[in-house]
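Re: the request from the purification team.
They wanted to know what the chain is likely to look like in 3D before they choose a buffer screen. I agreed to run a prediction and write the result into the notebook, where they can find it.
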Amino acid sequence: MKKALIPLGIFIVLLIFLGVGLTRDPRVIPSPLIGKPAPLFTAPRLQAADQQFAPKDMLGKVWLLNTWASWCVACQQEHPILVKFAKTKTIPIIGLDYKDKEADGLKWLARYGNPYDVTISDKDGRIGIDFGVYGVPESFLIDKEGIIRYKQIGPITDEALRDEIIPLIRELQK
């Protein structure tokens, strides 16, 4: 009799885990990097490969690192919102062209507009891996001390800008 209760108990525990899992938003993936220094790197600029960019160049500024690629469909949805936001000059936006060919990235920016103050190339994806990028687009809000304060998984939307990103930017700029 007791042996028959063991599979029933395991089944009930699995149902509880499934029930809890179904109540969570699958787009929300907590980042272990929130509250920690942004990974250090040096990368070539997309428009001028002889020039380098590093996060230390942004110390003292609140900035947004946006990962994107010319082959990314979701990046096309996000891009007009970034272009509009960039016109406000609220903060510098750094583009990380992730696992992309330089020529394709340059054509894409020429076609859709360039919201980035600086665009850097991450051909092999190492920088993205260091930031824990699951897939493009993903964005990271980094404070004046170089600490990651927010991660947006998926396209930035008008709602995410209005409700989460811009209020956090204002707080971090104080």
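For the purification team: The mean pLDDT is 91.
Please add any questions underneath this entry.
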